[in-house]
């Protein structure tokens, strides 16, 4: 472990001195995908609000559908709903409570029978149905019709075909969020960005992305069913400071913070199940040497079969019901 310097902390992104007025509580893993643990003395409030939020929003957008399917719980705010169409053209909304509901305009039909006028309202939500019913009640009350009965029922409806969800590997903004996450854990361990030349070049100078996708070997020794994890390992023999990041148990990358690390050998990690927020105790081993970093950057450790199998397993964890 490194001890924090006695000198004032400085923002990792703009290098201004941090104080009680401009320091911020930064989530190590973004809150937008369920992270809870925070670090102070890392970046200033303006950098957090401008660059940090922009990068983390890119990650939120990248993983929105997966976050909703798996039912993660944010520390602050719900995951925003998304809308998509099935192959019959039905518009469906998936919300943070895990419900899949038909959307679109409500359908209202009226029929006249021996028992009076029957109005049927087909709506996607209780609130929408209640609002329409209230309007009809006012209409009939004005006509002197007061014996109005109102009842609701819920109809389950299957989606006609498989729904296709898109997933991307993100953009430059999400890449900077990954490296910021690794750097946040480094800061928690008393390591400054000046000791992390690869991360600094990418985050501050807009240099070469210092990470790559890693599906070559199992990194987690006691893998749970579902997790987010960020690890940090200082290896002075190889002069490497590496971080392994895994989101939603299928998105896996290694960040190279430094290739000139000369500090103590150590390991640290932060892992949680984002569906409940509980922290997990996970052991790990990142089997990369200094001579393999260029292969990491060249995506030589990307394996679409492992990625596909991992993603399929994650999607099987949380079947969703369809309501209309």
Please, could you describe this protein's structure?
By secondary structure, the chain is an alpha+beta fold. The protein has a domain at 26-74 and 167-315. Helices cover 26% and strands 21% of the residues. It has six helices and 14 strands. It has helices at 45-70, 126-142, 172-188, 197-203, 293-297, 304-315, and strands at 26-27, 38-39, 82-85, 91-94, 100-102, 107-113, 116-122, 211-213, 228-235, 240-247, 251-258, 266-272, 279-280, 322-323. It has a six-stranded antiparallel β-sheet with strand order 8-11-10-9-12-13. A four-stranded mixed β-sheet has the order 3-4-5-14. It has a two-stranded antiparallel ribbon with strand order 1-2. β6 (107-113) and β7 (116-122) form a beta hairpin. The chain is elongated and about 90 Å long. The model is unreliable at 1-7 and 319-324 (pLDDT under 50).
Key terms:
324 residues; alpha+beta; six-stranded antiparallel sheet; four-stranded mixed sheet; 26% helix; 21% strand; elongated; disordered N terminus; disordered C terminus
Q: What is the strand and helix layout of this fold?
A:
Elements: E1 26-27, E2 38-39, H1 45-70, E3 82-85, E4 91-94, E5 100-102, E6 107-113, E7 116-122, H2 126-142, H3 172-188, H4 197-203, E8 211-213, E9 228-235, E10 240-247, E11 251-258, E12 266-272, E13 279-280, H5 293-297, H6 304-315, E14 322-323
Parallel strand pairs: 5-14
Antiparallel strand pairs: 1-2, 3-4, 4-5, 6-7, 8-11, 9-10, 9-12, 10-11, 12-13
Helix pairs in contact: 1-3
User: N- to C-terminal separation?
Assistant: 55 Å
Number of helices: 6
List SSEs in N-to-C order.
EEHEEEEEHHHEEEEEEHHE
- Uncertain runs are 1-7, 319-324
Class derived from helix and strand content: alpha+beta
- Gyration radius, in Å: 25 Å
Mean pLDDT: 84
Beta content comes to 15-25%
**Number of E strands:** 14
Strand order of the largest sheet: 8-11-10-9-12-13
Shape: elongated
Helix content: 25-40%
Query: What's the story with the biggest beta sheet?
Result: 6 strands, antiparallel
């Amino acid at each position: 472990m490194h001890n924090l310097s006695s000198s004032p902390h400085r923002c990792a992104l703009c290098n201004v001195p941090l104080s009680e007025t401009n320091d911020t509580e930064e989530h190590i893993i973004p809150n937008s995908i369920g992270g809870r643990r925070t670090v102070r003395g890392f970046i200033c409030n303006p950098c957090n609000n401008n660059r940090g939020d922009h990068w983390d929003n890119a990650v939120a957008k990248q993983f929105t559908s997966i976050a909703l399917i798996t039912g993660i719980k944010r520390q602050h705010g719900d995951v925003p709903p998304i809308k998509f169409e099935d192959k019959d053209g039905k518009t469906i909304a998936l919300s943070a409570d895990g419900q899949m509901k038909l959307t679109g305009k409500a359908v209202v039909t009226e029929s006249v029978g021996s028992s009076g006028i029957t109005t049927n309202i087909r709506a996607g939500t209780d609130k929408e149905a209640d609002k329409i019913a209230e309007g009809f009640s006012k209409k009939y009350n004005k006509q002197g019709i007061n014996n109005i009965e109102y009842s609701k029922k819920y109809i389950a409806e299957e989606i006609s075909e498989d729904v296709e969800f898109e997933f991307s590997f993100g953009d430059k903004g999400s890449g900077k969020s990954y490296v910021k996450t690794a750097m946040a854990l480094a800061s928690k361990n008393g390591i400054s960005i000046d000791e992390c030349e690869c991360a600094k070049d990418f985050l501050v100078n807009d240099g070469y992305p210092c990470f790559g996708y890693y599906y070559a070997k199992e990194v987690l020794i006691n893998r749970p069913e579902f997790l987010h994890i960020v690890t940090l390992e200082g290896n002075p023999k190889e002069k490497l400071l590496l971080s392994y990041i895994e989101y939603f148990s299928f998105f896996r990358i290694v960040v190279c913070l430094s290739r000139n690390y000369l500090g103590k050998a150590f390991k640290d990690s932060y892992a949680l199940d984002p569906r409940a927020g509980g922290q997990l105790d996970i052991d790990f081993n990142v089997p990369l040497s200094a001579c393999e970093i260029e292969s990491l950057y060249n995506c030589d450790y990307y394996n679409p079969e492992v990625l596909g199998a991992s993603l399929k397993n994650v999607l099987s964890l949380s079947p969703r019901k369809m309501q209309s």
